Amino acid sequence: MKQHDAMYIDGSWRPAEGGGVIEVVNPADGRVIGTVPAGSAQDVDAAVRAARAALPGWAATPPEERADRLAALRDQLVARTGEIAETVTAELGSPLAFSTAVHAGVPVAVCGSYAELARTYSFEETIGNSNVLHEPVGVVGAITPWNYPLHQIVAKAAPALAAGCTVVLKPAEDTPLVAQLFAECVDAAGIPAGVFNLVTGLGPVAGQALAEHDGVDLVSFTGSTAVGKRIGALAGAAVKRVALELGGKSANVILPGADLPKAVAVGVANVMANSGQTCSAWTRMLVHRDHYAEAVELATAAAAKYVPGEKIGPLVNAAQRDRVRGYIEQGIAQGARVVAGGPEAPSAGPGYYVAPTVFADVTPEMTIAQEEIFGPVLSILKYEDEDDAARIANDTVYGLAGAVWAADEAEAVAFARRLHTGQVDINGGRFNPLAPFGGYKQSGIGRELGPHGLTEYLQTKSLQF
Fold first, then answer.
1. pLDDT per residue over 340-373, tens digit each?
2. What is the pTM (predicted TM-score) of this model?
């Protein structure tokens, strides 16, 4: 039981003004495993004021010194890898091996990448008779989700700090314990007081107060498209910059001649990772009609390997579990055929589990092919030719990620160029922490990771000579 009674503001731990408490539940068994303070608008105001006071000094700190602090932060994250992984497993339900490799490992790589970028990025450049300065945008309000809790914190805080911004973080209320750990790492890394601040609390209270605060210059939010629209409206009223990474309904397009067994196996693994709670998951598998039956058979066999409670964890809470089961029931009602899983609860204990589910005979207009489910649910659709595949893949309000498989890499790249989406993996391409990540259409505004992620936290000034 981890009972936190304070928030990290202006370099010290202080109790919340309101005195409320948020209980953190282990979704694998429903037990309360910790508590954090329920921050109020007054707590947000204190954090923003601290960030504003620290901004001039941190913005004036040479990039090399900011890089040193980020490198020290990375080292702190490495030193506490085991504790981070165990914490995420406890509050999110992710299997420990996945938590260690992804939830703890990826933030280390991302933090390290920004330590290096702070040293090498050109914060000044000459264009003709002008000297162009890239300066910090100011105070950043970072609102992060529960599905990749530490990664999303680092993907916002690290570039903001590298740019010379100061940060107020409001983490998701389902997974705030790892945010507390991160604040401890920030403190141990010697980052000056007020440069990073943590306010735990509920979205409609602390989150809204942060998005609306006059002292915040940029709001960076990752979460649902519905909430992203609300935050965009709040920020827009003050002509405040926003960076939004929102929902997805990504297509995994398998072209004729591709390695079908590999494409299907990797595609199923992609959907089942993190219990399907990944915005960029390839939840629509598009297969040519001549290979459709074989693909369905391969996907059915692959899904059977994801045993709830062993290789795949629960969903984050009861509401999310019920929501995903509701989508499965809706798919059945609309005529899709369940070939693996289904809406019934798996025999994995008392947690918020959903059976890994695969649908065949899915058509593009079905709800399960259009809306983000955010659970371990795969829809397999058939197409007639490449034009039909491109039409189906692009027939969504989202455009976050995707994949293309082909016998020839050039063929896959040519098809990927037709997709209206921010990132496409070619024949199982590896994750790149320096590549820009973000969406087209209703999947968001702006980019995270690498140099493109750094520029989100910079504004431009031109000096003419």
1. 999 998 987 889 999 999 999 999 999 999 999 9
2. 0.97
Phi and psi, residue 331, nearest 5°: -60, -45
Asked whether 54 and 193 are in contact (CB, 8 A), the reply is yes
Residue 7 is inside which H or E element, if any? strand 7-9
Instruction: Give pLDDT, residue 1.
Output: 85
Q: Which of 212, 279, 411, 448 does the annotation list as catalytic? A: 279
Of the candidates 91, 245, 372, 456, the residue annotated as catalytic is 245
Strands 284-288 and 251-254: parallel
* pLDDT at residue 251, rounded to an integer: 98
What does the alpha-carbon distance between residue 342 and residue 324 come to, in Å, rounded to a whole number?
10
Cα angle for residues 306, 310, 312 (degrees, 5° grid) = 50
Tokens 């303070």 correspond to what residue?
37
SS3 percent helix, strand, coil of the chain, rounded to 5, is 45, 20, 35
Mean pLDDT throughout 108-116? 98
CA distance 178 to 153: 10
The Cα 245–Cα 80 span in angstroms is: 28
pLDDT at position 348 is 76
pLDDT value for 255: 98
Annotated catalytic, 245?
yes
Closest CA to 201 of 366, 5, 36: 36
Euclidean distance between CA atoms 215 and 48, whole angstroms: 6
Q: Exposed, middle or buried by CB within 10 Å (0-12, 13-18, 19+), for 122? A: exposed
Structure tokens at 93: 């339900």
pLDDT tens digits for 158-169? 999 999 999 999
Q: What's the first-to-final CA gap in the chain, in angstroms?
A: 62
111 flagged as catalytic: no
| Cα–Cα distance, 232 to 372 (Å, whole number) | 20
Which value, to the nearest 10 degrees, does the dihedral of the CA atoms of residues 246, 252, 253, 259 take? 150
- What pLDDT is attached to residue 18? 76
Q: What's the rounded Cα separation, in Å, for the pair 139 and 219?
A: 9
